[in-house]
Write a structure and sequence with these properties.
Blueprint lengths: L6 H11 L6 E6 L1 H4 L5 H13 L4 E5 L21 H6 L6 E2 L6 E5 L2 H4 L14 H7 L3 E5 L8 H9 L5 E9 L2 E9 L9 H9 L3 E5 L2 E7 H14 L12 H9 L4
Helix pairs in contact: 1-3, 7-9
Length: about 260
């Protein structure tokens, strides 16, 4: 019979991994890898809040699944970010940013982290991931690897990579619909897996188990530093060669116009 972890046990696992009271903690999670646990997804959120305590700040991605629909922070779901993230923004005391690239936050720095941020640079310094970085926050990956780590996109911005993909999203301005067209640093993200080895070589990533999931914990600043260093050596280290992936093809092709 599969063990059902209690909230108390989850808190102990998180603390053993290195999550501490007062932390600013950005979490990406695949709950299917964590379960079964006490109280399901809500139990995991409770454990995360207890691990960082009342002076901590819990942050999760909360971006829209529907790129062609106007984002409404009070009702737009984010099922693509997982069941935990889609529950988190709905809870009392949790704030959510008003952007199709939204994040949600609870705790001491929540209002600062979800303050307005630009649509056309989703993961720059002036964004929730940029603010977690500025606050020396931690990044926790539960049941997933760095392919889901949005902080790496911040590093791409800070490294000044030139590749872009064309994007567009609807937005309301003074009650009127307009389309925002922009060029975003983006690709398939599969090669973000390389970051595991880069962090391990420096001893900057802690590995463990939370619930039944493999867990990774690292400081946002150390993720950014190691990725910026690698990108300045090889700007296209994350991009597949032409012909492997359509998103990477578009990003590579954009370099010709950079």
């Amino acid at each position: 019979m599969t063990q059902i972890f209690s909230i108390v046990e989850l808190v102990q696992q998180l603390e053993a991994l290195g999550v501490h009271s007062g932390a600013v903690l950005l979490v990406h999670c695949a709950f299917s890898q964590v379960k079964p646990i006490e109280d399901g997804p809500l139990g995991l959120i409770t454990a995360l809040q207890e691990a960082i305590g009342p002076s901590g700040t819990l942050v999760m991605p909360s971006m829209t699944d529907e790129e062609e629909e106007v984002f409404a922070p009070e009702r737009t779901p984010c099922l693509g970010m997982g069941v935990v993230a889609d529950l988190f923004w709905r809870l009392p005391g949790v704030l959510r940013s008003n952007s199709p690239h939204a994040f949600a936050a609870w705790g001491r720095h929540a209002s600062e982290i979800v303050a307005p941020h630009p649509i056309d640079v989703p993961h720059g310094l002036d964004s929730p991931v940029g603010r977690v970085y500025a606050l020396d926050g931690q990044v926790l990956l539960l049941g997933i690897d760095h392919t889901a780590n949005t902080t790496i996109h911040l590093a791409e911005n800070l490294a000044g990579v030139r590749y872009r993909r064309k994007k567009r999203t609807p937005a309301l301005e003074n009650g009127r619909l307009r389309w925002v067209e922009y060029r975003e640093i983006d690709h398939c993200c599969e090669n973000f897996r390389l970051v595991d080895a880069w962090l391990h070589e420096r001893g900057q990533q802690r590995m463990g188990v939370v619930g039944h999931a493999r867990a990774r914990l690292a400081r946002a600043r150390e993720i950014v530093n190691v990725v910026v260093e690698q990108l300045r050596r090889n700007e296209t280290v994350f991009l597949h060669p032409f012909g492997v992936d359509a998103e990477c093809d578009e990003a590579r092709a954009s370099l010709a116009d950079a």
